[in-house]
Amino acid sequence: MSVSSINNSAERPAPDELLVNIADYALNAGIDSREAYDTARLCLMDSIGCMMLALNFPACTSFLGPVVPGANLPGGVRVPGTNFELDPVQGAFNIGCLVRWLDYNDTWLAAEWGHPSDNLGAILSCADYVSRNGERPPLVMRDVLTAMIKAHEIQGVLALENAFNRVGLDHVLLVRVASTAVATVLLGGSREQIINAVANAWLDGGALRTYRHAPNTGSRKSWAAGDAASRAVRLALLALRGMAGCPSALTARTWGFYDALFKGQRFAIPRPFGSYVMENVLFKVSYPAEFHAQTAVEAAVILHPQVTGRLDAIDRIVIETQEPGVRIIDKTGPLANPADRDHCLQYMVAVPLIHGTLEAGHYEDDAARDPRIDALRQKMQVVENRRFSVDYLDPERRSIANAVQVFFADGTSSERIEVEFPIGHRRRRAQAVPLLRQKFAGAMESRFPAQRAEPAIRLLSDAERLDATQVSKFMGMLTG
Q1: How far is Cα 4 from Cα 68, in angstroms, rounded to an integer?
Q2: What are the pLDDT digits (tens) for 259-268?
Q3: Distance between CA atoms of 136 and 121, rounded to whole angstroms?
């Protein structure tokens, strides 16, 4: 008997419990949290704003459009801020790239980190595709918001206690899994098709985090989410065409995800899927900076008036941060490119100490040539504050604290500025909302003339009207 005959004679198992739970939640769960929908609208608004700002950077726009130049698809998925109309797979890549490029979209911090609005690449692409192809009733933006809440939840709950980074895997794995589930639902998939698609999403394994860390940091970290979203849409479309799944994709001995890639450990799922993640998601309101550094940047901005006239007199700068901050963004030595700089805690503190703010342009080569930045970086000491690390993982606090203090050669020092919760935190949501709206309006006006930008700005501020707006109309407002 051949090996293949032996393998094929084994009875196929029932689908892994997690595959079933994800499918049932994505397909059938009702979301009754007003806070979740209110936050999802803010997330949508903020993500669109991030897309518009990203279009100002040629390094991003060079990745956009069809795979083959000139292969536009009239009637296809629209890419906000552009004239592209694409197939849904490439549409997801384009939208995902734009949302993520500037490291300015929402964030989720737990044992694993990530950016749940990365899923919008798949969600908006599938929603626009369904609404334009005429095979099913058109979707409305309430459907998009529901898909966002569910994608946030799947990605975020899986991240709570499972550190994929500890085994070298990148968090966009969870974007692919969450996007696959909700994309299959948006495309009209059945429960079995969702299970099959999600199983295949796990079978893809995970991208290595190599491109996020020196000496290999590069632009892939800005398009990796678009890649994950596009793969999710492809898997969803294949499932609708009858693609089989692997029911024990996670648990199969030797060959399953747990044994092959997670050191034999099963995932911890500490809470059922609901709307917890969207309600607690973090917004990057003020600064395009890796989120573990947001409060450090805020502290540096506060310190700017105290140090701006004494930069040459600085002896040392002490930055207290959480353990993930030390592990991810504590970087010394040369920084190769903008992707390297926006993940360097010392760089992100030095710039606002000098300028009183931090903007996306500060990561570009021209700004980085300022010799004062590296001079300050060389004087910085990054240390873990154990209390910050404990509170970071506390589900009731979810703080992302940093403290910054500047010491001068004459023995004097600045205040020690500690910021526990960034403006985009749930505990500072009321403070954040007007700033998020301001960020969105500025982003829209950077791309469109006022008469084009204003209708979208008004719509994103009108919950009832936005919910009822057809997806095809919404996407049309953002293109061109």
Answers
A1: 39
A2: 999 999 999 9
A3: 21
In total, the chain counts a number of residues equal to 480
Q: Report how far apart, in Å, the C-alpha atoms of 332 and of each of 227, 297, 335 are.
A: 30, 17, 8
Residues 6+ apart with CB under 8 A from 449: none
On whether the CB atoms of residues 175 and 207 are closer than 8 A, the answer is no
Q: Which residue has the tokens 């004097």?
A: 412
The Cα–Cα gap between 217 and 114 comes to 17
Proportion of the chain in helix, strand, coil states, percent, rounded to 5:
55, 10, 35
pLDDT band per the 50, 70, 90 thresholds, residue 396: confident
Q: Which residue has the tokens 């709206």?
A: 437
pTM (2 d.p.):
0.86
pLDDT 10s digits, 220-249: 999 999 999 999 999 999 999 999 999 999
Q: What secondary structure letter does DSSP report for 14? A: P
Q: What is the CA radius of gyration of the chain?
A: 23
Q: Which residues pair with 294 in a beta bridge?
A: none
